[in-house]
Structure formats: C-alpha cells, structure tokens
Amino acid sequence: MQKTAINYEKMYELLILARKIDERFWQLNRAGEAPFVISGKGHEGFQVALAQLLNQKIDWMAPYYRDLPLVLGFGETPKSVFLNLLSKADDTNSGGRQMAFHWGNQANHILSHSSPVTTQFLHACGVALALKKQGQPGIVVTTVGDGSTSQGDFHEALNFASVFNLPVLFIIENNHIAMSVAQEDQYKQKDFSGFGQAYQIKYAKIDGTNVMSSYQDLQKIIEEMRAEPQPVLVEADVVRLTAHSSDDDGSYLNEQERNYQENKDPVTIFQQELLAQQLLSQEKMTEIEEQISDLIDEVTEEALAAADPAADTLEQFVYEEGEGK
Amino acid sequence: MKLNMIDAIHLGLQEELVRDEKIYLIGEDIGRKGGAFGATKGLQEQFGADRVMDAPLAESGIVGMALGSAMAGMRPVCEIQFADFIFPAFNQIYSEVSKLRYRTNNDFEAPMVIRAPYGGGIQGGLYHSQSIESFFAHMPGLRVVIPSGPRDAKALLKTAIRSNDPVLFLEHKKAYRSLVEVVGDAEECFPIDQAIMKKQGTDCLIITYGLFVSKAVKVAEKLAEEGYSVGVLDLVSIYPLDQATILDAAKASGKVLLLSEGNKEGNVISEVAAVLAEEILFELDAPIKRLAAPDVPAVPNAKTLEDAYLHFSETLEEETRALILF
C-alpha cells in the first residue's frame, strides 16, 4: 500500500477543534443551554490519528460517547455536533431524540448506538459480516471504555469476530476508571492482552494520549487488517480530564489518580512534539487555534438559533412509513 | 400442497433464501443439524454455510451481530432455539433493535426477523415451555407476530422477512407437527399487522392466537351443534394490536372471551380487554372473560403439574357456553 505523507497540520486542527468544541460544550452546559455533556477530553490523541487512517468510503465506525474527535474526523461537522448537543431538529444523529453524544449517521458510515454500554461491539461485528458477505473491502472500528470489558456483549463480540474472522478493530479506551469505580475493583489483569490470547486475536497496547505514536502503531495495525482481514483488539491508554459527565463532580478521585490524569494531556503532548521536531511552528499553531475559536463562536450562534424538533413529530418513525410499509 | 407447520416454515425460509441474496439465517444448531426442530434442515447444504450460519451459543451475540449486518444492508433471520433462551438478547432487542429507526430519526432501519419456538404441553419443563410474548409486547418499533397454522405461518413469515421493520416471530412448538393444511405458493404473503377472523359468530367471540386458535375453532364448531354462533378472532399481531378489527369483531358478538397460554396477570390479552373496556364497554352484553395460565413462574415438567398448568384451556368449552348464557 502506498504511504501518504503524514499530515500533522490536519491532525493538529482536528485535535484543537475537538478540544475547543468540548470546552464550549461545558460552557453551554454551565450556562444552562445544554442539558448534558460527556467528554472525550483526554481521549483525543489516538482518535485524531485513527481518523486520518480510515477511509470513510469503505470503512465503518461504531463509536461510543467519548468519541467526539473521532466522529469529527469521520464526517461530522462542527455544526452537526452542536445541533446534537442542543437536541435540535436538524441534528443528523437523531433529530434531537437521543441524548447528546450518541452518534449515528448512515451517510458518514457511523452506526447508531444507545446508552447501555458495549452493545455496539456486536453491531460492528455485524457490519463486518455484511462487508464480507457483500464482497466489499473495508474495516469496522468500534470503541468502548474500560468499564465495558466486564459486559457480556464485549466477550460475545470478540468471540464472534474470532470465529467468523471479521475485520473489526476493537478499541478499549482505557482511562482506568469506570465512571467512579477504580481499576482494581473492575478487573484483576495488568492489561487486556489476556483477552487477545483467549479469543485468539491480535492484541496491541498503544499510548492513546500521544497522537504521533498512536499514528505509527495504528497505521501498522490497519495496514495488516487491510492486507489480511481479521479482528484486532487495541487497548488505548488514555486519561479522563473531566468528571464522568456534567452530572458528576469527580470528587471521588484521589490525589494520585488526579495527578496521573492531568499530566497526560494529549494536546500538550502533541504540541511539545510538534515543536520539538519542528513539524509545525508556534505561529501556525496559534493561527489554527484562532481560526477554530472563531469558527466555534459562529457555529455556537447558529446552533443556538436553530429550530427545535416540532412536538407533532413525536410519533414519527416508530415503524416504516409510506410506501415501503 | 399439504404441510405441517414446521415444514411450511422450512419451505418459506427456503423460498425466501432463493428470492433474495441479502437474506441469511443464523442461529444455534441451524446449519449442520438443521435446527432443534428441523426448520432449517438441509438448507445449509443447499445455500452454503455463509447463508445458513451456525452461531456460537450466545443469544445476545446472534441478535446483536444480526442487527449490525442489517444496518449494513443485510436481511438476517435469527433463530433462537427456544423462546425461553431469548432473554440474554433482551437488551439487544429492547434497547437496540426496536429503537433503531426511532432513535435515528429514520436514518437507519432494522429489517430482521427473530424466530423462536414457544409454548408448553410437550413436557418441556420450566425452560422449554414458556410463553414469552408479553415481555416483548411493550416495545414500540418491534412487531410481535404469532401464526396459528401452517398456511399462515408461511405467508406471515414471508411478509416478516420482507418487512423493513424488525419482527419477533413466535411459533408454538406443539403446533409444529400437530397442525397440517394446504399452504400457499411462494408469493402468498399475509399482512403481519392484521388480526384474522377465523370464524364469524354472533353469540360470543373467542379472541386468541397461536396454537389456541385451532382449539377455539373446534370449540366453536362443537357449540354450533348446540345452536350457538361463536366467532374466533386470531390476533396474529400481538404487538401492535389490530384494534380496529378487534373492536369490530367484539361489537358483532357482544361477548368476548380471551384466551392465552401465558400467565394471566400482565398478559397481552389483558391489553385487549383494556382496549375493549375503554372503547366499547357499553356495547358489550357481559363482562370480558380471560382464560389464561395460573400465575406460577412457568410450566412445570411433571405431567400432572403440566396438565394442571394447562387445565384452564380445557375449560374453554364450558366457559364459552357460560358466557353465552350470561
């Protein structure tokens, strides 16, 4: 496969876009405009890299609620995620029906997901199965948090993908805390390599806070998957730089957990590497940041002014309507 | 062609597999073995292991993976080996399958069927006899369809498979081999959202579904010899209910007896009773009568206990007569 040059600027733009949108979301929540925020802050590093490595024309994605950067890199626009946050009529994910951060957009090859966690792991298997049956290329990426590794669907999905040899890239975004439950109260393994072994699928652990190393690691994995379709389990080590959600204060975190999280901010890490390796200048970074800030101001205004779903649409689309019925 | 219900379902699946390459079957033991009851016997040989897939023993996995494939253009038909085993997939059915169209504002749909044998009277004990339909009759977005005989089974299954909405298709396992009739051709498709008047009657109406439809028709014929006119309405669509047909049929007879094999409290027939009470109470000539199973957890295995569980259905004739004479 031909390797294209790594576009650091594009990745930096996506990283800053996701971060600044996230920060604006919290402001809107505190201002009483957005009922709920659940953040990917600290999870951005590998997501930004992954988005560059996928081909939206052939690949699919079954994300979860901490994947704002990933969906922004996979066709969702700043406007669409603001409309989603505010449950507006033109929200392309659900028309304001789902809580915010519940993605899903067929045109973008992003599967719809619910709130009970890990169900999307099996849906990803299904899409991969469909691609196989239809003789189409492409891989399916699906993500969960570390808490989801205790769910039955997690294990059923890994086993099904293994048995049917499905090209699914399963990613555990391990921020080492499942809402409030500490890692040692969730599982006893050092890492999730044992699951790879148990289900006879490849396993890799990556530093998900580091855009550059994530890019290198994921590029190799995805190239292998394209050359020889197969499931892979990736554990992306990330941090959660916010509370679980806007309805949580994170006060249960101890000092050690708090320090660990705060010292691994993907934005800082990427900025330092870009400057150290002279891949992007400070001036360029500042320019990007300013442009994105302006864009976000503009989009915020547009989204706040957008129409809410009409009350009389409540009963629409329970079943197929119109001719095909 | 005269077939029993399991052979009619087999033929329906076979015809649909021929018709549309997007359709595939998946379930436990449905490939090499051809299914616990033989509904898919020989189909893997005919269509290959890609289209008739043996799945690992995990119901949530079967339904969840099927849903994913449906989101990407396939039309899966899942088999749950016994309805009693469907509960590991409850979350996938309730949270995912039934809500997909609604939650995506019509962007995605789930054209899939989940088949499962249900019902007792075959000494299947607590976990091979259950009537589970009431649990699934509370999920807007999902259809629950139960056929009452071979011809309906084939013609309803085809419509379910061709529907762009998800359908839970429940087959009474005692009906598989006990009922035999002439079935329709490959294009005979019956509506899956309409109740069927199996017999007209003016003195009393029995409303039921599944295996009990044939029982109700026999009772109606017997009572006809006594000069009574008893109608039988087959619900077919357990959810959502075909309220218009139910109300029209009930008005024509003035008296209604509801019959179901599930536990009485919280049964789907109670919803039918509620609809009747709400809409046409003053057009009825007698209180609505419900005949259903006692409120014990499930059908016990010992023949004496199983008979005791199902005893209510043996009282159908006398209860119908009593209602007529009310």
UniProtKB/TrEMBL annotation, chain A:
Function (record text): The branched-chain alpha-keto dehydrogenase complex catalyzes the overall conversion of alpha-keto acids to acyl-CoA and CO(2). It contains multiple copies of three enzymatic components: branched-chain alpha-keto acid decarboxylase (E1), lipoamide acyltransferase (E2) and lipoamide dehydrogenase (E3).
Family membership noted in the UniProt record: Belongs to the BCKDHA family.
Coiled-coil boundaries: none
Family annotation (PANTHER family): 2-OXOISOVALERATE DEHYDROGENASE SUBUNIT ALPHA, MITOCHONDRIAL
A Pfam family matched in the record: E1_dh
Cofactor(s) the record lists: thiamine diphosphate
UniProt keyword terms in alphabetical order: Oxidoreductase, Thiamine pyrophosphate
Presence of the UniProt keyword DNA damage in the record: no
Annotated GO MF terms: branched-chain 2-oxo acid dehydrogenase activity
Identification of the protein by name: 2-oxoisovalerate dehydrogenase subunit alpha
Keyword Oxidoreductase attached: yes
Annotated ranges, domain Dehydrogenase E1 component: 14-309
Recorded catalytic activity of this chain's protein: N(6)-[(R)-lipoyl]-L-lysyl-[protein] + 3-methyl-2-oxobutanoate + H(+) = N(6)-[(R)-S(8)-2-methylpropanoyldihydrolipoyl]-L-lysyl-[protein] + CO2
Gene Ontology BP, a term: branched-chain amino acid catabolic process
Xref: SUPFAM superfamilies: Thiamin diphosphate-binding fold (THDP-binding)
Enzyme type, top EC level: oxidoreductase
Enzyme Commission number: 1.2.4.4
Automatic annotation (TrEMBL), chain B:
Essential cofactor(s): thiamine diphosphate
Domain of life: Bacteria
UniProt keyword annotation of Cytoplasm present: no
One MF annotation (Gene Ontology) recorded for this entry: oxidoreductase activity
Xref: Pfam families: Transket_pyr, Transketolase_C
The entry's keywords: Oxidoreductase, Thiamine pyrophosphate
Keyword Oxidoreductase among record annotations: yes
Domain Transketolase-like pyrimidine-binding, residue spans: 3-178
Name of the protein described by the UniProt record: Branched-chain alpha-keto acid dehydrogenase E1 component
Organism of provenance: Isobaculum melis
